[in-house]
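Student: Hello, beginner here. Can you help me understand the protein record under this note? Any guidance would be welcome.
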Amino acid sequence: MRRVRVLGATVREGVSFTLHYMRVNRLRTFLSLLGVSVGVFTIMAILVTVYSLKASLMKEFEQLDSKSIYIDKWPWVFEGEWWQIRKNKGPDYDDYRALLQMGAGVGKVSMVGQRNGGVVKHERNTMEGVTVCGALPNADLLVDLTVAQGRTLSFRELSGDGNICVLGVKVAKQLFGDANAVGEEVRIDGYRARVVGVLAEQGARMLTQSADDAVVLPYGFLAKLYGRRSLYNVMAVAPAKGVSEDALVEEVRRIMRGNRRIAPGKPDNFAVNRLSDMANMMDDQIGTLNIAAVFLGGFSVLIGGFGIANIMLVSVQERIKAIGIQKALGARSGFVLFQFLIEAMLLSLLGGVVALVVLWLVAKGVSTFAQFDVAMRWWHGVLGCGIAIAVGLVSGLLPARRAAGLQPVVAIEGLAGAH
C-alpha cells in the first residue's frame, strides 16, 4: 500500500509540474508537442488509412465468389510487357457461349458489358455520364443487383433483349427525385426502357464498380443499343462442384484459346484473374505503406523527442535545489529517475492525444463528405498513445538519469556545473 501511495504521489506531482511548466513556457512546450503530434498523426494516419483500405477491400472480396475466376482484357497483376498486354482482346459473347457449352468443369458463367458516358432522360430531367451496363444470367458473380425498390432482373429477362432496366440510386434520384421510379419509362441514349427496380445504395468502391450512377439492362438490349463490338466486357466463371481453381483456370484457358484459334506456343490474348492474386498484391502494397508510415512519422517523432529532452534538461536545471532537498530527506535515485520519466511521458502523451483527436475529426470528415469509411478503431488510439509514451520514455531517460545522479550537497547549493 505504501508503494502505491508513493507512486500516486509521484504521478500527481509529475502532472502538476508538467502543467505548470506548460503554462510558464508556452512557446517551447507548443513547439515540442507539435513535433510529437505531427509524428504520431503521420504514423497513425497512414496506419488508419491502410487499415480502412484493407477493410473496404475485404468487404468487397466477401461479396464476390472467392472460387470464381475473372476473364478480362487487363490483368489485375501486371506481369510482362505493357505494350504486349495492351494488344489483348477482352471476352465477348462468343467466348461466353463457348464456355457455357463446352466447360465441363464450369459451374456458372456470366458476363457484364458496359458503355460509359450514356445519357438517360425522363421527361425534362436528364443525367449525363451514366454507365450503361448489360448483364447476362448469373450476373451476381460480377455485380450487386440488390434492389431497394421494385424487383431485380430475372434469369429469363437477362437471357433476352427486352427494353427493361434497373436504375442506380443516383440515377433514380436525378430523374425522379423522391417519386417512385418503378413502372416509369426512361430513354437511354434515345431508346425507351421500362424501369422495373431501383438498386440499393452501394457507395464508393475500390475493387468493383459502384452501380449508384449506372443503369443495368439485359445484355441483349445493351448490344442492340451500341453494338457488341463497342462494349467493354468482363466475364466471371465459377467452378462446378469438386473442381479446383487451378483445374478451372486450365479448362477456361483451353476453351478460350480454342475458340479464338490461338496457335500452340503463342501467348494468351486475354487475362485470367483470381481474387487470390489481387489479395497477395494488396498485402504487399499494404506492407510497403506500413513501412512508409514508420519512416515518415519517425522523423517528426524524432524532432519531437529532442524537444521533450530539451524541456526535461531545462526542468532539471531549474529544480536542482528541490532535487537536492528530496535526496537529502532520503529520496532514492530511482525515485527521482522515475519522477522525471513520468513527467516526460506525460508531456509526450499529451502531444499524442492531441494528434489522435485531430485524426479522429479528420476521419469523421472524410467518412461524411468523401463517402469512404475511414475505420478508426479503439486500438488505433491505444497504439498512438503507446507510441507517444515510448517517445517520452526514451527522450526523458537522459535528463532523468542526470537528475537522479545529482549529489544532495552539490544540488542544494545549486552548483550543477560542479557535479
Summary: The chain has a mean pLDDT of 83.
